[in-house]
Specification:
2 domains, 60s Ribosomal Protein L30, Chain: A, alpha+beta, 11 helices, 315 residues, seven-stranded mixed sheet, Phosphoribosyl-aminoimidazole Synthetase, Chain A, domain 2, four-stranded mixed sheet
Length: 315
């Protein structure tokens, strides 16, 4: 199929857009209705041999996963999605069934958060990649630099399971159902982000690992964060850790690709059952600032600094 035929094929799978979309797929650009509400933009890439291997997932799963990863940034800002743009680089060996599957996965992810793919681009290349841009609105966006000493830390979503699934796949082993699903089908926590922004001003999505993303939140706000080790663990994570031969806390802190939502809110703020409290913020000392010891872990009577390491494209 040529490019025009593929675009028409994708448009048939993805649909014509949603609320606020005046013009979707098929023109030089998408058109969304003007709004006085601040706009939130973000972009994310899923690149073969960097973020995934085709042997690990099917096409629909890949389209879903790439779309949810990008939408997770909107969740962290407390934004309502307006639309998604997707640029696909397709290797010559990719058949139409894979292209259709990617589009179905994108459509499924968008349907779950009530938005749509409204445009994008197709190109040929040596490796499969999906670059996803997301657009949303947020009357009161949460930011990384607004954590205050005394704030409580809340987490929506599991941490560590996706890493356990990835670790098993990397070793050529079959992961357990919970960790395989966590890696293949992450969920952008749009609803949780919208609920959190009613009472919170600071948040970050946990994409590169809780340790490094918590440190980013703390450094941006010039505070120290105290995490409760027990609050990070549950029976599902312990079972997954046992299957892959890793420590549960290691997975929870340094996993990555969880797309959980870490939120800081004033003490006493009410959160729903999808959130669990995992710690608090306090003033950072000058010694901690110099040493870049932004995050601390409390495990029983032991207290230790958490190394701010996680996924980095360039390390």
């Amino acid at each position: 199929m040529n490019e025009a035929e593929r675009i028409a094929r994708l448009a048939g799978i993805l649909g014509s857009g949603g609320a606020g979309v005046e013009l979707g797929i098929g023109d030089d650009g998408a058109v969304v209705a003007a709004s006085m509400t601040p706009l939130v933009w973000s972009i994310d890439a899923a690149v073969e041999h960097v973020h995934f291997e085709r042997a690990w997932l099917d096409a629909e799963c890949l389209g879903y996963r790439a779309t949810m990863a990008a939408l997770s940034d909107l969740a962290a800002m407390g934004a309502t999605p307006l639309g998604v743009l997707a640029a696909l680089v397709l290797p010559p060996t990719l058949d139409e069934a894979w292209l259709d599957g990617i589009a179905r996965g994108q459509r499924r992810a968008c349907d779950e958060v009530e938005t749509a793919v409204i445009g994008g681009n197709l190109s040929r290349g040596a490796e499969l990649s999906i670059t996803t841009s997301v657009l949303g609105t947020a009357a009161r966006a949460m930011r990384r630099d607004r954590v205050r000493p005394g704030d409580a830390l809340w987490l929506a979503g599991p941490v560590g399971l996706a890493r356990a699934g990835f670790h098993a796949l990397l070793k050529g082993e079959l992961p357990g159902e919970s960790e395989l699903h966590a890696w293949r089908y992450p969920r952008a926590r749009i609803g949780e982000g919208l609920a959190a922004c009613a009472v919170a001003e600071a948040a970050i999505d946990v994409s590169d690992g809780l340790a490094v993303d918590a440190a980013r939140l703390a450094e941006a706000s010039s505070v120290a964060l105290e995490l409760d080790a027990a609050a990070l663990l549950d029976d599902t994570l312990r079972a997954a850790a046992a299957r892959v031969g890793m420590a549960p806390l290691e997975l929870a802190l340094y996993g990555g690709e969880d797309y959980a939502l870490l939120v800081a809110a004033p003490e006493g703020a009410a959160f729903g059952p999808e959130f669990r409290r995992i710690g608090s913020a306090r003033p950072v000392t000058e010694a901690e600032r110099v040493a870049r010891s932004w995050v601390w872990l409390n495990e029983g009577t032991l207290r230790r600094p958490v190394l701010a390491r996680g996924f980095d494209h360039f390390e």
